[in-house]
Design brief:
By secondary structure, the chain is α+β, with helices and mostly antiparallel strands. The protein has helices at about 10-25, 60-65, 70-85, 85-105, 130-135, 165-230, 235-270, 275-280, 305-310, 315-335, 380-445, 450-485, and strands at about 110-125, 145-160, 340-350, 365-370.
Length: about 500
């Protein structure tokens, strides 16, 4: 194929076009507003103060705050969640998806070249004008049946004079950042939810143990009352009251066990496992009433200052990047109102016979610029621009709402942790007092100085106080977890999704 006889002018035009594509007309301003990072007035400090000295100090410890609780089973479960959780895999896939969209936007800066190869065989109607000429022999060498061989390249290149393509790339790039931050937010939520659910399981196991221990104690008490009734020292009423208390305590057990199964099922989903796989790797255990569900719990929380929330919380960072994308898309819509300049060209071979297909005489080419300008669109383009402006306004309001929500969550969780700690200490004293009351009521009953109703009431109070204390411990741990989620920790030590 002889294709070397191009003019110097054609080669120069191609080179100029290629240089312009690589520079992207960056010396020209882009239409539409330029993005400016939003500013919000933030308080200098939190209103709620957390007493106590926090054990978490280094950035690594902050990024892996759940490890400071000193529970190897929890660490294993979090690792499983980060490896196998299906929602996390969806979020990672979305990051890879928007990266490809950004690559597509980048490709729009360069010439688009397509190659075509074709063969057609056509029979012209003999009743047409051409058919009469060809069939009568007026044009020699031409018959009603014709063949056509073709091969070539078509190229088009939009010159980004007004910045529509540049704004599209800005929007795609900001969307990649926003999606990455959404993935980071999934990390934060997944880690905190796995940790919270794990301690919910532990708490329910402890409450089940408490109920079973109380059933054993009340069964023993019922046996004592039965012996006294048989000896004529107590009435049948005391035995009926003992039976009532015992059955009521037994009735609480199925509800707790149901809640335990539900919590373990949710924990299995978070870890990306079936309930059977979780039970095999993380078997049920009975937590004694004196055991703490969290082995170590820092006395304080690294609360920092409100401005750090803007840097740490992925949902705020995602909202800010989404705002940047929407602002860039305003420029894209505005560029549609301006002329579009395109360079088009084709180079190829065309012949009626296969024998002449590769000869120089079969060569053909065309090259030239074109300009398109919207003249009348019935207001469609202006409406699209106004709609995009509204989307940008929505993104701005959404960003501000996200910041305010984050500040409110940070404030409330810090206060909740401190108050729950105080409540736990009070409930612990109440539980200890209920145990003393129970011992005294039993002693008076055995001496015949009080009826069995006092023992029943004391047992009921002690069981309720112990169960409420266990719930308070879970609430305290949950508040600790919620605080680090609200402050935006947990994603910083996670490796970035590999580029594909």
């Amino acid at each position: 194929m002889k294709l070397k006889n191009r003019s110097i002018l054609n080669i120069s035009l191609v080179r100029i076009a290629l240089v312009a594509a690589m520079t992207g007309c960056s010396f020209l301003p882009s239409v539409g507003p330029d993005y400016e990072e939003p500013k919000m007035q933030l308080p200098e400090n939190w209103d709620g103060k957390v007493a106590g000295e926090n054990k978490i100090q280094s950035p690594i410890e902050l990024a892996t705050w759940w490890k400071t609780l000193g529970d190897e089973k929890l660490n294993w479960l979090v690792e499983q969640s980060l490896e196998s959780n299906r929602d996390l895999e969806v979020a990672k896939s979305k990051v890879r998806e928007v990266r490809q969209s950004r690559a597509s936007a980048l490709g729009s800066f360069f010439p688009q070249i397509t190659s075509t190869v074709g063969y057609t065989k056509t029979r012209i109607s003999q009743q047409s004008v051409q058919g009469n000429l060809f069939g009568s022999g007026a044009i020699r060498g031409v018959t009603l049946v014709q063949e056509n061989y073709s091969a070539g390249f078509d190229a088009s290149w939009e010159i980004d004079l007004f910045g529509g393509l540049r704004r599209s790339y800005e929007a795609a790039d900001a969307s990649v950042d926003s999606t990455q931050e959404q993935l980071n937010n999934v990390y934060v939520s997944l880690i905190s939810e796995t940790t919270r659910t794990y301690f919910e399981v532990r708490s329910l196991e402890k409450r089940i143990s408490i109920a079973k221990e109380n059933i054993e104690i009340q069964t023993e008490s019922r046996g004592i009352v039965k012996s006294r009734v048989d000896a004529g020292l107590s009435s049948e009423l005391d035995l009926a009251q003992a039976d009532t208390q015992l059955e009521n305590t037994k009735a609480a057990l199925p509800s707790l066990e149901s809640l335990g199964v539900n919590a373990r099922s949710r924990l299995a989903v978070l870890a990306g496992k079936t309930i059977q796989e979780l039970d095999a790797a993380f078997p049920k255990e009975m937590v004694g009433s004196d055991a703490r569900i969290a082995k170590e719990l820092p006395s304080g929380i690294l609360q920092g200052v409100p401005s750090e929330v803007l840097r740490n919380r992925p949902d705020i960072r995602a909202a800010e990047r989404n705002l940047a994308a929407q602002i860039a898309l305003v420029g894209v819509s505005k560029s549609d109102l301006f002329p579009k300049f395109t360079l088009t060209g084709n180079l190829g071979l065309q012949s009626l016979t296969s024998q002449n297909f590769l000869e120089a005489s079969a060569k053909g080419w065309s090259f030239g610029p074109s300009v398109s300008l919207p003249i009348f669109t019935a207001g469609r383009l202006l409406a699209q621009l106004r709609a995009q402006n509204e989307r940008a306004e929505q993104a701005s309001s959404q960003y501000e709402q996200t910041v305010l929500q984050a500040l409110a969550e940070g404030e409330s969780t810090l206060v909740a942790y401190e108050l729950e700690k105080s409540r736990y200490d009070i409930l612990k004293k109440a539980y200890e007092a209920s145990l003393r009351s129970l011992d005294l009521s039993k002693e008076l009953y055995q001496k015949g100085l009080a009826d069995f109703l006092r023992v029943i009431e004391a047992q009921r109070s002690a069981f309720a106080a112990e169960d409420i204390l266990a719930q308070s411990e879970q609430s305290m741990v949950s508040s600790f977890i919620a605080s680090y989620k609200a402050l935006g920790y947990g994603w910083q030590a996670i490796e970035e999704v590999p580029k594909t």
